[in-house]
Amino acid sequence: MIPTERSPPMAHGDNEHGDNIPVLVGVDGSQTALGAVRWAAELCTRTRSPMHLIHGVTHSRWYAAHEGALLLGDQSVHERLRVVGEKALTEAQEVVHDAAPGVDVVTSLLDGSIVEHLENLSARARMVVIGAGHGGRVRELVLGSHVMPIVHAAQCPVLAWREPAAQRTEVGRIVIGYDGSAGSEDALLAALDHAQSTGARLTVASFWPVSALVGVGYATTLVDWDTIRSDGERWLARRCAAACEKYPDVAVDYAYEDSSPGRGLVNLSASAGLVVVGSRGRGEATSTLLGSVGENLVHHARCPVLVVQ
């Protein structure tokens, strides 16, 4: 890692504002990244954590610059990209100072893959926060391609931020996908902790694609949906009771729906402020969940997504 001279090193001693475990934020100068910075600034204020803003200067032979032009890789281009990175870090730092003037901030301009840098730094981080736009322009597609590798590589929770849906009606609601696995238990505790610090209501959601299993025609005539839903919600309440007792001030409700987890959570995200999911579920391997539910959420959710490692 090669930090710029103007970027002070991360302090690892005691800090009067908190435990000094930083929140890492990847920035690239985009509006989506600045939105992620604002979200992280609120988190740092609540947790009294310092923030570490990071920009990686690619060694790739091509790069999508702010103006959208593709540049061929050579030494002069590399220097220009460092200037772009310096500007992105300065803009992000100004956003933090405006949104949360009490938060301590350091910046690092690092040569190489931001994925590798965040993987290494995340071992001593509270959370990694990164913008996850829906894509469209070439530049967004290039920088956005880092999101899932970061989610896979990070050694702490990762928040993939995007602008919440305009039709969102329950700004203070957090949705957590729960299936009874160890990963979803970790996600539940993280969701409860976040709900307590923000005053948000928590919805614990579980899904079982009954229609897909028995057939839509049979499902509409032979399945007692009210009984299935009420039994499922009681199961959720029992499974979550011990964790919820640790957070008595958090209002919790339960949703048991006929849907695949990916589709169900994306639908709920349209009316939520945050969706939380574990990095490992009932699949055979961590990559199974991230390859389906987690990745589907990161790419298609209508609000920020927190993936808990």
TrEMBL record:
Span of domain UspA: 23-160, 172-308
Gene3D superfamilies (alphabetical): HUPs
Highest taxon above the source species: Bacteria
Family according to the record: Belongs to the universal stress protein A family.
Protein name in the entry: Universal stress protein
Annotated source species: Gordonia mangrovi
Taxonomic placement: Bacteria, Bacillati, Actinomycetota, Actinomycetes, Mycobacteriales
